[in-house]
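Page 42, continued from yesterday. The earlier attempt failed because a stray header line got pasted into the input along with the sequence. Redoing it now with the clean sequence only.
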Amino acid sequence: MPATILFGAAEDDMYDTRTHHALANHFHARHHIVANDMEDVREALKLAAPLVITSLLSSDRLKFEAGDNVLLYRYDDVRRLGEKLADQRAAKGRSELEQEPVFCVVWSPEGKTPPRFQHITQEAAEREARRLSAANPGCPLFVLEPTFEITIATHGIVRYRRAAEDEVPF
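This time it went through. Structure tokens are written below.
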């Protein structure tokens, strides 16, 4: 399972433990690490995944080696999601099984490989779909959200609810 790295956090974001805990739970992480530099990131990657690393570094300062199993997200893209999840957890309680969709993927029936990148927001997925559409004119692209998740190890099913038409997605 890949490590999730939230890059480009501001100094004040590093102390928002409520949001960090919600995001770690959202990504099914065992650990949440705050990394100030690439050395901290390297040390964190030695821990057993899944983990979430929040970093002050910008994406161009993150340097990975072949074989590093990481997913990168801009901190600003996930901060509002983390705040919303923290509020929902407080309102619903921890045992609530109905959740908001956890990611989106961009898919094309004409694609050569199955989609693997998980976009944390609809907006991020839409940006990627627009980029891919410009690079592949005439190729239909779809932004998809999960409807349910089945984990064989626990035999649990988590169903995702769709946001109402007039509901702000985060």
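Notes: Helices lie at 17-26, 38-45, 75-92, 122-135.
Reminder to self: strip header lines before submitting.
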